[in-house]
Amino acid sequence: MGMLVGGRWSCDARGDGVGDGTFRRSESLFRDSVTRVSGRFAAADDRYHLYVSLACPWAHRVLIMRALKGLDELLPISIVNWLMLDGGWSFEPGGGVIPDPEGASFLHEIYTRALPTYTGKVTVPVLWDKHTRTIVNNESSEILRMLNDAFDDLGAKSGDYYPAELRTEIDALNARIYPTVNNGVYRAGFATTQQAYDEAVGPLFESLDWLEDRLSRQGWLVGDRFTEADIRLFTTLIRFDAVYHGHFKCNLRRIEDYPHLSAYTRRIASIEEIAPTIDMHHIKHHYYNSQRNINPSGIVPRGPVPRQ
Ligand SMILES: N[C@@H](CCC(=O)N[C@@H](CS)C(=O)NCC(=O)O)C(=O)O
Fold it and tell me: Is the backbone peptide bond immediately before 203 cis, with ω within 30 degrees of 0?
């Protein structure tokens, strides 16, 4: 997996602490914001660029918001190859890959372009500013919020997925869903002790049971509106049966075993703007082939068979 240390790529260094067997996601470093009003990173046409992986659930959140807000032209993207081995994310040509406009071979070159002495993990998504030639932000939850309204005066589609009156409830849901579900699957999958695995998988399924109950009474997570909370949950659910159930050992139940959660996942997956953002080939091949510490053979399972 590797990381940058003082601006040099190191294949062996690991950014996410696993000393006691527990996976701890490291903090993102670049935390500025593109804003609607004038300022250091004011929203503008042909100024920002987004780097994503189609496999990654965190990047997928941002891709969905970009699609819903119709930002295809305002915010162009590059897509990394699904295979992430010793050099980290790369732009090696392949199906679905969109190269870096400046010709980088690896994503870590974008990080050192911004900060030549950068030390840390090289993750997607990355929001890049072509004017100041820096990374504005590499934290998906924050980029998601920016795209919700930053480009609204420049022709973005209408739609507010983080409405003021629902923020408290959305925040409360995110506060449970992020640690136990979105990151919970990683904590289960990357655990290196039985105890760390047990501590992740229990709360994960308690949360899925709780969400199933909630969705038996309402169509969306918060009130009767599709919001950011749904986007954030969806990107984990759509990967669950194909990857997390087997590869990350989250196998008490499948999403398909939950009538409401599975119907909800299908409903979101069929939204016109969202459907093209889902790439099961990138998703399955990335996890099973790249995370060789978990799956040394790199064999990608054939299933699950899609529901007819
Ligand atoms: N906190 C970050 C996490 C992003 C993240 O961990 N992305 C993964 C892909 S799913 C990544 O790029 N990992 C590269 C690595 O671990 O070296 C966010 O939500 O934006």
Answer: no
> Would you call 118 a catalytic residue per the annotation?
no
Q: Which of 56, 111, 264, 287 is catalytic?
A: 56
Each residue of 61-87: pLDDT tens digit?
Answer: 999 999 999 999 999 999 999 999 999
pTM of the full structure: 0.97
Three-class HEC string of the chain: CCEEECCEEECCCCCCCCCCCCCCCCCCCCECCCECCCCCCECCCCCEEEEECCCCHHHHHHHHHHHHCCCCCCCCEEECCCCCECCECECCCCCCCECCCCCCCECHHHHHHHCCCCCECCCCCEEEECCCCEEEECCHHHHHHHHHHCCHHHCCCCCCCCCHHHHHHHHHHHHHHHHHHHCHHHHHHCCCCHHHHHHHHHHHHHHHHHHHHHHCCCCCCECCECCHHHHHHHHHHHHHHHHHCCCCCCCCCCHHHCHHHHHHHHHHHCCCCCHHHCCHHHHHHHHHHHCCCCCCCCCCCCCCCCCC
Q: How far is CA 214 from the centre of its chain?
A: 24
Q: How far is ligand 1, taken at its centre, from the CA of residue 124, in Å?
A: 5
What domains appear along the chain, each with residue ranges and CATH number?
Answer: 3-154 (3.40.30.10), 164-272 (1.20.1050.10)
Pairing of strands 48-52, 8-10: unpaired
pLDDT digit string, tens, across residues 91-124: 999 999 999 999 999 999 999 999 999 999 999 9
Q: ipTM value of the model?
A: 0.98
Q: Give ∠ CA 125-280-230 in degrees, rounded to 5.
A: 60
Contact present, 63 and 273 (Cβ < 8 Å): no
Which entry of 51, 111, 186, 258 is annotated as an active-site residue?
186
